[in-house]
């Protein structure tokens, strides 16, 4: 009897979670990530072990099929998922620091040593009426502002508010991100590594002005602000990317970036001239830019291969 009782108790403790509910609908498992800092995995690299490094600049274009998961859902009120840009906007409301781009036209590098923007500066940047032709001029109440800031509210955490009304108009022109990445060789692990240093949303509406201004100046004008990627990661780790083809396979935005599941194209590298590939001083044609992109990518790949002898 003791043996039978033990088996009964053990069987009672075993719970089988069915895939279908009582109405025959599929149960898609939903995980919740803890906001604890230990959910963010960081690899420590000693300074003396990094014997070679190189900065590169890449663009993530959400119109590429591999990047669709970063752009959708386009709706601001989806109950389960948010786009990458919506995650960033919500993080700004919660206090994510933003950094201004350089005051030198054409300089697209981030400068995280500078002080971050003050909250009252942010609404005028996230504005669907970029030229001011439609707005009423009141930053605090304009319907064209993606975020509204009211300094009169006592609680600082509630001063910044998200404006659902203008999200659809904004997201139509926000489908690119510029990232600064460092590629380096760590002799302790004997392999190449890459790490995103900063990410900047690009306002693509300026692409129509390429006939009037240089391409590099246009790219500079599209940068809304810079974000230190490590400061963004805790927010990325709390949101799942919208599934693609497999509803039961879910990854967070942080995993999506750490596993490099996105596609990019290269727009520049760190060099003594402080020039990017679209820089007019290079006088590159579109064909020559593609050739330079292929050359730089090949150099990054060949560097690691050339370290070994067979």
Q: Can you give me a brief rundown of this structure?
A:
The protein has 310 residues and is an alpha+beta fold. The protein has helices at residues 2-13, 68-71, 84-93, 122-125, 167-171, 215-222, 229-236, 253-258, 286-306; strands spanning 50-61, 147-149, 160-162, 176-186, 191-202, 227-228, 265-269.
Structural commentary:
The protein is of the alpha+beta class and 310 residues long. The protein is 25% helix and 15% strand. It contains 9 helices and 7 strands; from the N terminus they run αβαααββαββαβααβα. The protein has helices spanning 2-13, 68-71, 84-93, 122-125, 167-171, 215-222, 229-236, 253-258, 286-306, and strands at residues 50-61, 147-149, 160-162, 176-186, 191-202, 227-228, 265-269. It has a 5-stranded antiparallel beta sheet. Strands 2-3 form a two-stranded antiparallel ribbon. The radius of gyration is 24 Å and the shape is globular.
Q: Name the structural class.
A: alpha+beta
Report the biggest beta sheet as strand number plus sense, adding barrel if it closes: 5 strands, antiparallel
- E-strand count: 7
Q: Which series of helices and strands comes N to C?
A: HEHHHEEHEEHEHHEH
Enumerate the strands of the largest sheet in spatial order, edge to edge or round the barrel: 6-5-4-1-7
User: What percentage of the residues does DSSP assign to strands (E)?
Assistant: 15-25%
Outline, from the CA principal axes? globular
Alpha-carbon Rg, integer: 24 Å
Tell me the span between the first and last alpha carbons. 68 Å
Give start-end ranges of low-pLDDT stretches.
132-141, 206-213
Instruction: Estimate the mean pLDDT confidence.
Output: 81
User: How many helices in DSSP terms?
Assistant: 9
Report the helical percentage: 25-40%
């Amino acid at each position: 009897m003791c043996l039978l009782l033990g088996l009964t108790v053990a069987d009672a403790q075993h719970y089988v979670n069915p895939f279908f509910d009582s109405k025959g609908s599929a149960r898609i498992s939903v995980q919740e990530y803890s906001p604890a800092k230990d959910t963010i995995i960081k690899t420590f690299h000693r300074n003396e072990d990094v014997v070679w490094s190189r900065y590169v600049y890449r663009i993530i274009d959400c119109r590429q099929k591999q990047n669709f998961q970063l752009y959708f859902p386009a709706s601001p009120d989806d109950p389960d998922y948010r786009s990458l840009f919506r995650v960033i906007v919500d993080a700004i409301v919660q206090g994510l620091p933003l950094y201004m781009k350089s005051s030198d036209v054409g300089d697209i590098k981030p400068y995280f040593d500078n002080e971050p923007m003050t909250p009252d500066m942010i609404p005028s940047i996230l504005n669907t009426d970029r030229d001011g032709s439609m707005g009423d001029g009141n930053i605090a109440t304009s319907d064209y502002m993606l975020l509204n800031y009211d300094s009169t509210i006592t609680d600082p955490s509630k001063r910044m508010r998200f404006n659902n009304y203008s999200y659809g108009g904004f997201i139509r022109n926000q489908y690119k991100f510029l990232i600064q990445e460092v590629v380096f060789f760590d002799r302790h692990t004997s392999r190449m590594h890459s790490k995103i240093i900063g990410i900047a949303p690009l306002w693509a509406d300026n692409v129509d002005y390429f006939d009037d201004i240089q391409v590099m100046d246009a790219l500079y004008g599209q940068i809304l602000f810079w974000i230190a990627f490590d400061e963004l990661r805790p927010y990325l780790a709390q949101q799942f990317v919208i599934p693609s083809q497999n509803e039961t396979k879910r990854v967070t935005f942080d995993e999506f970036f750490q596993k490099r599941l996105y596609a990019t194209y290269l727009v520049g590298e760190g060099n003594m001239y402080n020039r990017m590939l679209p820089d007019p001083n290079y006088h590159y044609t579109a064909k020559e830019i593609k050739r330079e992109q292929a050359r730089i990518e090949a150099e990054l790949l060949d560097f690691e291969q050339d370290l070994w002898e067979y």
